[in-house]
Amino acid sequence: MATAKKRAFELRGADGGPLRGDVRAAGGGSGAPAVVICHGFKGFKDWGFFPHLADRIAKAGITAISFNFSGSGVGEDGETFSEPERFAKNTYTRELKDLESVTAALAAGALVDGLAVPTKVGLFGHSRGAAAALIHASENDSMCSLVTWAAIGSVGRWSRENVERWRAEGKLDIVNSRTGDVLPLLTDTLDDIEQNRERLDLRKAASRLRIKWTIIHADDDVDVSVADAEKLYDATRKEDTELLVIPGGGHTLGAKHPWIGMTPQLSVAMDATVNRFTNDLF
């Protein structure tokens, strides 16, 4: 099995600051397909399972591109939420713009020196990152395959009471349970949802999709209910879509950060993911 080589890249993010990412390729990536990986809310490209998933994809002969959304809050060290001011103003459409920048640079052969233009491109997204991947795939005919884990079914994730308090106070404090960091989220997110309601309708995006899509969700996910996966699946063309519900594992399929090792649920999900991309991109 080939060894995946990792190289860093940096683009201009949607907020004008740096958008940092990595390319993993087994060999030089010449004449190979590629998959772009999108992390979720409070996630980052080096969280838990993401590096291991990227390695699996790369070792299957598919170039794997992972990156931190410009509003992730994670700084140059790739681990610390040292950019809270960027997190505070993050929005769904900014994440879409970041993803567009990555896929455009990939298509132009401009991510890292020597990386060939991919033959085909697929998308992977976890949780909120799945929303960006789904919308981007529904808007861009150049995308050829999609896999999501624990995908949210709608962008409005907060109760009316929380939204009213958020508006009144001008911010919502988001606690990182792993580090204890408190990251204020300004009302830019709420404004973005209101101003782009049609574009951010995930069920409509699912109904527009015309590529193969594997939806993977744990049946005991308390952060994003499996009902979200079922609603997305119901909106799709069934001949193109697979819904895989995995017993147990929760929102991250048992993965922790720092990484403590593979779980049975992760193993099933990674196998299904690599199989989807291999079948669609070669």
Q: What does the model show?
A:
The chain is of the alpha/beta class and 282 residues long. The protein has a single domain (4-80, 91-153, 199-281), classed as Alpha/Beta hydrolase fold, catalytic domain (Rossmann fold). The chain contains 9 helices and 10 strands. The strands form 2 sheets. The chain has an 8-stranded mixed beta sheet with strand order 1-2-4-3-5-6-9-10, with helices on both faces. Helix 3 crosses helix 4 and helix 4 (128-139) packs across helix 7. The model has no long low-confidence stretch (mean pLDDT 95).
What order do the helices and strands follow?
A: EEEHEHHEHEHEEHHEHEH
Strands, count: 10
Mean pLDDT, to the nearest integer, reads 95
* Tally of individual domains: 1
Terminal residue distance: 17 Å
Could you say which structural class the secondary elements and strand pairing correspond to?
alpha/beta
Q: What is the CATH H-level superfamily? A: Alpha/Beta hydrolase fold, catalytic domain
Shape descriptor: globular
What is the CATH level 1 assignment?
Answer: Alpha Beta
| Biggest β-sheet description | 8 strands, mixed
CATH architecture: 3-Layer(aba) Sandwich
